[in-house]
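User: Predict structure, ligand glutamine.
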Amino acid sequence: MSPSSTTPPATVHGYPRQGPNRELKKAIEGYWAGRVTAADLRTAAAGLRRDTWRRLTEAGIAEVPTGDFSLYDHVLDATVAVGAVPERHRAAVEADPLDGYFAMARGTQAVAPLEMTKWFDTNYHYLVPELGPDTAFAANSSKAVGELREAIALGHTARPVLVGPLTYLLLAKPAPGVAADFRPLTLLDRLLPVYAELLADLRAAGAEWVQLDEPALVQDRSPAELNAAARIYRDLGALADRPRILVATYFGRAGEALPILARAPIEGVALDFTGPGAANLDELAAVGGLPGKRLVAGVVDGRNIWINDLEKSLATLATLLGLADRVDVAPSCSLLHVPLDADAERDLDPQVARWLAFARQKTDETVLLARALSQGTHTLTAELAANRADLASRAASALTHDPAVRARAGAATAEHARRARTYPERAEAQRARLGLPLLPTTTIGSFPQTTELRTARADLRAGRLGADGYRERMEAEVREVIAYQEKAGLDVLVHGEPERNDMVQYFAEQLTGYLATRHGWVQSYGTRYVRPPVLAGDISRPHPMTVDWYRFAQDLTDRPVKGMLTGPVTMLAWSFVRDDQPLADTARQVALALREEVTDLEAAGAAVIQVDEPALRETLPLRAADRPAYLAWATGAFRLSTSGVRADTQIHTHMCYAEFGEIMTAIDELDADVISLEAARSHMQVAHELAGAGYPREVGPGVYDIHSPRVPGTEEAAALLRAGLAAIPAERLWVNPDCGLKTRGWPETRASLEHLVEAARLVRAELTG
Ligand code: GLN
Ligand code: ZN
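Assistant: Predicted complex:
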């Protein structure tokens, strides 16, 4: 099937892996559980690849990607392809490559897995390569070549996709035992011959083109890193025995890397023209385009779930036609980050469903744009008119334009986003109202989400349990959690969040303007898929969301119970957000809805209200130049949600990480009275950093690492507290775990919290005695 002159030049970088009914998840988890053989897993995986390629080809994609498929993660696949298997996993990989692969991904009783972290600013997690001065790379092209051969055998024109060498090295970290300042990029000389071998193998297997993904080039890069990029593509380009090379950048603008790629002796460049990538259009023109090269133009946003503005994309493409030898239409990045098929969403209002484009619809849009490009827009008048009508209906809809919400957002002033009193005044009022001991103890919010709780929720969904029965079970749990905390001697209690399936979804389900999908699964990592809510319209709060639970819990005890909410930035970060208005405007609407909840909690008697913002840092734009604007609206939204309370109402926030670095100022600008954060593993280092930056308010650096079932001893927790006291004065230090306890079991939770309370008593006695 070689592309004919009428075949529109359309392609995609990658496609969702799991299959229409999450077949891949079932096959892999079945294999782990011993129910599925390795052969059956391989057959299932090959079947899914075959179906994807067929679907893409039938849709009109001329050149299908291969190698983007993965049994777990494409960065782990790259680690295997370059032979960078960590020492501790080598024996397992040699004994059985498949089991060894999963051991690297998930660990075994005996060996730890690779660390997992977020793939750029998406919610996909990759496995971090571990490299050191002794790393010896060796090419292993079996997966890449095998999948290419499969596609060719099925009659497709295929383009293998690999993580590029620069991105691979920049995503790596020093292996355990290697000096922390080791820079993986120093291994480039050793890595390049391995890539040369991979390219040669793919060429020999029939690849005309190979795509090397270099999303690291959309981040700010040092001159040395840019030089490395130039060198990589000069050297790979100079190889005699190689396929044509397409270097793909996505998730933003290529910036300083653009002229390097334009000059490199490679045959193609893929650029993102959506979101912050839109700047690529002018920058490409400024460097004189890509004469003699193929441009893969990412004009269909691969990260959101909204239909494309086809006319706008056509205008972009018209400009691009003059800037390269050949222009292919493509989504901006792999479609891995969107669900599979919006047509499966039968429960949505059909009008709203027409605004949605998942992987399948984005593929169709890509082909449509390519067709318009090669055959002229007059051949597609009906499609373009339908697109215009859908966009117009979205713009005119009551869902996206609620006058009451807009009036409220318009009326909110800077004054609303500022507490009326200064922190010292508030601290005094709060001290008088709460009467807490020195080093007050608390937890972050959730208590263990037991099987019984999850079963009750499943029963409610399936109709086996009525709403009243469900509430009774949750209330029984709250009773137990409150009684336990009193007995354990904690000072500020929580209700335990048993009723929350997820800290974002719980609120999304209750806010007007959010939609839920039935099949909108996207890969978070490995076989874990999430269904992010869709923030589709103007946000309002028809009724209080947490007040009844707060009240129920507070009525059970004389100690203060914290109101517990998810903050505006996190509500956006873990959802699909609308693309028809600035994020700042969306955040403001969410903040105002939360502000009503905060006010209602206060009116119901809550003296302490916690607004979690674990996503504040992960949503940080990839380019430093874009960060101040982001941090300004993000911190502004947080303050807007929390500043409507009296001076004696204490606002807490929580974040799940300890490296503040460049967001230190932003943390301060939240103006929360108390912040709790992760610190146990880094031995309270963050307390010292906050103190060093002059952070003036109260801090609860975690003394119990909840990421492990390990129970910290009393003396260990006390030692951490003393370390905290070296940085933060006792009057401003809280005692709490690193994060919520929902993933923990009750036995370790009980033991750990009792030690935590004991440690607080011990250190209090040292201070006062
Ligand atoms: N309050 C939430 C909990 O305890 C916070 C979770 C989080 O920070 N991710 O579960
Ligand atoms: Zn947390």
